[in-house]
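To close the section, here is one more complete example, presented without commentary so you can practise reading it yourself. The ligand is beta-D-glucopyranuronic acid.
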Amino acid sequence: NQYDSCWLRYERVPDGRLDSYRRRCRHAYIAEKAPELSAVRDELRRALPDLLGSDPHLWQHPPTTADGFLAIGTPDDMAMIAESVPTDVVDDLADGGYLLKSVTWNGQDCLVVTASTDRGLVYGTFHLLRLLNTHEPVDDLDVREEPAYENRLLNQWDTPFHRSVERGYGGESIFDWERLPDLRPRYEDYARLLASVGVNGIVFNNVNTTKPERASANAAFDAFEGWQLLESHRLEAFTSLASVFRRYGIRPYLSVNFAAPMLVGDLDTADPLDEEVQAWWREKADEIYELVPDFGGFLVKADSEGQPGPYDYGRDHVDGANAIARALEPHGGRVWWRAFVYGTHEDRAVQAYDTFEPLDGDFDDNVTVQIKNGPIDFQPREPVSTLFGAMPETDLGLELQITQEYTGQGVHATYHLPMWEEIFDFDTHADGPGSPVHSLFRDDGEGVVGVGSVGEDHSWTGTYLAQANLYAFGRVAWDPEASAEAVTEEWVRQTFGGDEEVVDTVTRILHDSWEACIDYETGGLGLMHMMHNGEEYLENHYYPSPEEWPGYHGATEEGIGVDRTSTGSGYAGQYRDPVAERYESVEDCPEELLLFFHHLPWTHELADGTTVVQRLYDNCFAGVEETKRLRDEWQSLEGEIDERRFRHVAERFEEQVAQAERWRDVLTDYFYDYSSVADEQGRVGDD
Ligand code: BDP
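Output:
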């Protein structure tokens, strides 16, 4: 195969299960009509021969000659299904929800996959194939599933025409806009991967739609920029791509440039209150919907890192977002407006809340404010954003980073699911105690967004283990309360097979990897942003270089950390009590975030009597030891999994250990240079 099948690798199931699977799945009766159902049929044709060892028989009416069969359709389309399942339960399912049920019909042993929408049938089918692929029993199935959030979106940070992916570590972009409308098989395979975990929307291009200022040195970016996708002659390419994803229930979106009326159109302003500007957006929206009736809408990065925005015209984010949203509104489209703004406040953490919270209630109904999980920028660990739960009158979206910009990029094994679990479980107290992050974003128009990671590499994600982050994103956006262990194990079984030793080992590696990365990259007390930032476009963000960022961690000869309490930037006070009180107080602030909220003497004693500087040393060393342990665990799999993937990951683990040591050495030297406090164990200090 030219590229990896990821978790959609279907292998022959063991004999013990084969009879029951064959009886219920070898014949499949599938409703005709929707494009999604042709995708379902194709997936069965792909999967069942490999799983069951023979081609499926596909029927357009209930097969009469078989002992049993699989039935996939809505109760409205298939009488057999209406007779077999409680139709009121099906009708009540949210869009995308589905039932899987083992039933006896006409004396036959059947499996029913049903839903109220065709998209739900796609998800139900993938769920069933997952069960077969992980050898779960299906004779007594009674599954009812519904997505927690209406919107589960992928944000590609692909730069069209240049085929690069900003922060993409899986090679160049899979999307070849120059050749579209010609399609590549890879598009469909990507849609399958996304649909199999419930993703229902994709933004095809980077949020940076004009070359960021910092890119001026790089001539390659002069040629083509993302805003050009809105040009009329390019919409054919977009229409073609949309048709692939539509079959899998995935709505297409575009990132747009706020100044598009000037760049794409020929107006001399993009002032959102100008009537010609508003008319331009309306006409553009009409033109797109004419071609792509299920178009999802626009994603906008405005007044952020050099992208144009409403501030250029003395307007605010509400004026900007609403002007564009009104053009989409008649078509049911939505604006996703990012809250990633900083630059005018000394402490960047306070700015998003300062800017957006006062605007609560003023955004139109079809605007969603899209907020990164933390106040800084996808750091290995951050406290959750103060905006969550703070704008009850506004639709909000949570933005997570699937790609590993700050967590070892395409090399390190750093699994993000434990981080996301921590974020989702955090109690915001937005509605009193018991208001975890996962309980937010549940209204229509809200949802969860992941910044993508795939590229042309064989592995799609730069390293095979990083596929787990893409998988976990979809699963957690579907059900943020699902057990992380179960999701991880499910991924491992589908990706590496069912050998228990392999399953346990890989699951453990993934599970422990995030804390290891935090330790060697930050020292584990809430410090962050210690990476190198070069002059070049897309600074690498990979190597350690703490001295570049004094403001982010506040090292002085006396101490370290940033005072974000009421005596400092006041960021802690943006949370609701008792969260604000907890972070305000040195004693109550959780140790893993201590130096994010407090500037403390190097010799400040932590709860167990260890000093701050000693803990930083210890954690940096522990992170490296842990990484070595994870590498050794991986080594123990030699011969247990295929050579290609084994060796690929093993090589990266060697590199990860070397990089972890480099982070440890640079960070501990940095702490020592400022503090002049020697490490108790003599590992750091003057030789
Ligand atoms: C930062 C990335 C940068 C993105 C920016 C964003 O370093 O490449 O353009 O976020 O989210 O994490 O807009």
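Once you have examined the tokens, check your reading against these statements. The mean pLDDT is 95. Residues 158 and 205 are 5 Å apart (CA to CA).
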